[in-house]
Design goal:
With 165 residues, this protein is of the alpha+beta class. The protein has a single domain (2-163), classed as Aminopeptidase (3-Layer(aba) Sandwich). 30% of the residues lie in helices and 38% in strands. It has 5 helices and 7 strands. The protein has a 7-stranded mixed β-sheet, with helices on both faces. The longest helix has 15 residues, at 91-105. The chain is globular. The mean pLDDT is 94.
Length: 165
């Protein structure tokens, strides 16, 4: 497995192998954020195809509850491994470590990651990697579905932090 920073040609491969819900590619949106300097979008590759991704959001978590207590904390977000049969093989852990290393290279003291309250498997992974609970919050996001309707979502989450030093 190899982890690289996403490039423009990777976006089409990500869409083909790890599609986005709805009409608009979230891979393209993440790549655009990377181009704007807001994040670094990482892709895990296995046998020439993308099997995982995450972004290190240098601008931090968008949730006001989190920004109030950790305004400067970068957030590891959008972590996914696909197809499902590749989960629990260390791909997600390696993506997180790669994002943490980017933070260390910038001299950052900590990194954060959000986890949905209904995802105990991910919470257990993050705990094993040294993340500790900071604050509960509501993750709010929207996407355009295949019919063109805007779907707004709210997920109860916990924001976790890890000391990178």
């Amino acid at each position: 497995m190899e982890i690289t920073v996403c490039t423009a040609p990777d976006v089409a491969l990500l869409d083909r192998h790890m599609g986005s819900p709805g009409r608009t590619s979230f891979h393209a949106r993440r790549f655009a954020r990377q181009e704007a300097g807001e994040c670094t979008y990482l892709v895990a590759w296995l046998d020439g195809r993308p099997v995982g991704h995450t972004e290190m959001r240098w601008i931090g978590c968008a949730a006001p509850e989190v920004r109030d207590v950790r305004p400067e904390c970068p957030e590891i977000g959008g972590l996914a491994v696909w197809p499902e049969e590749l989960r629990s093989r260390g791909i997600g852990s390696e993506l997180i470590r790669a994002a943490e290393n980017l933070g260390r290279e910038r001299g950052l003291a900590e990194a954060g990651i959000g986890v949905a309250m209904d995802n105990p498997r991910a919470a257990a992974l993050y705990a094993r990697l040294g993340y500790r609970s900071l604050i509960d919050y509501q993750d709010r996001y929207a996407y355009e579905d295949v019919d063109g309707a805007i779907r707004e979502c709210v997920d109860p989450c916990t924001f976790l932090v890890k000391d990178l030093r």
